Amino acid sequence: MWPFGDLHRRLTEYAYEIYDTLHHPALGQSPRVAYDTGLAKTGHRTHKLIAYDREFLVHTLPTTVKGTAKVAPGRGIKIRNLYYWSDVFRAPDVEKQHVAVRYDPFDAGTAYAFVHKEWTECHSEYFSVFHGRSEKEIMLATQELRRTAEQHSGEFHVSARKLAEFLQSVEAEEVLLAQRRNDVESRGAKPALTILPPPNRPADRAPDLMASPETAADLQTYGSF
Fold this sequence. Notes:
By secondary structure, this protein is α+β, with helices and mostly antiparallel strands.
């Protein structure tokens, strides 16, 4: 089995250095030549480009089955057994309302809620524990907790506190080590998918990229897995 980083590198090499330069029977030329020819005829059409910024990245993140969550007074929104909070939830017109939500599959400590016509960053309870942990890692931790509980009793409820305590244990390090290594490889292969901070916060790294409508659709599909 290939490490994800090596697989990503090989696929990228095939897509952009091999397939892109081979003769394509439907095009009568290579995809790269066809692309360059199209640009020469029509121009770059920069007005069609979509900025590869925080707003774009938030929109390409996955959402829940319902797509919304109810704002619980004093607790915030609940996504997959975790509550996420932002001070905007204190507003009377926001409490108990259903808002659109997005979550970061590579950071269980962060989610986003569409409030007052903008995406607001929310932090989970026990943020210092869940921050940087992937959706897959949380799922494996939950399964391990349930398995252990079934050996002692038939009833068990996964709470944020129990998950946080388990994730900080030596047992969790042993169970989740392989997944954490995989997550590190995944993040390294797609650094540009890291969410950028809001405009009023300094960015450690702000990629100067633009995405075409086609790229936006591809990333939305990727994010919906």
